[in-house]
Amino acid sequence: MSKNEIKNKLIDLYLFLKIRKSEELENITKEDIKNERDSLVILPTTDIINYIKDSIEALIELKACEKYEEKILNDESKKKYRNTENKNDENGLMLYEGMLIQAEKDIRKHIRVNILYLIYLLIFS
């Protein structure tokens, strides 16, 4: 391979790796890429290699940020799940506590009725 072929391959690689905004991607034309290619051809090969290196570093950083954000979202959703689980536990405990209070009331009422019945039997027997 000649130096020009290598340089052209590096330019192709750079244009492939170059980070662009979504608006740019939607509106980019072949002529835009050709103009960009022409402006890169006049640069030294070392500059193109540095551009490629910078693009790769930026892509790695973006990927790391995405993973970090994903981890944070997962952690937050786990916390929300735990909170709802805790709320469900609290709701269950509150429901159980209410049932116990009602059972205690029923027992006290039953005891009162039994005492009144015993008093009734003692008085009228």
Major sheet characteristics = none
What structural class do the secondary elements suggest?
Answer: mainly alpha
- Taking all Cα atoms into account, the compactness measure Rg is 38 Å
Helix content: over 70%
Shape: rod-shaped
Query: What percent of residues are in strands?
Result: under 5%
- Specify the number of helices: 4
Whole-number count of domains: 1
The sequence of SSEs as H and E is HHHH
Number of extended strands: 0
Distance between the termini: 122 Å
The assembly state of the depicted protein chains is: single chain
User: On the 0-100 scale, what is the average pLDDT?
Assistant: 78
- Contiguous low-pLDDT stretches (5 residues minimum) are none
Compact summary:
The protein has one domain.
3D structure, described in words:
With 125 residues, this protein is mainly α. The protein has one domain. The chain has four helices and no strands. It has helices at 3-17, 22-27, 30-41, 45-124. Helix 1 packs across helix 3 (30-41) and helix 1 runs parallel beside helix 4. The termini are far apart. The mean pLDDT is 78.
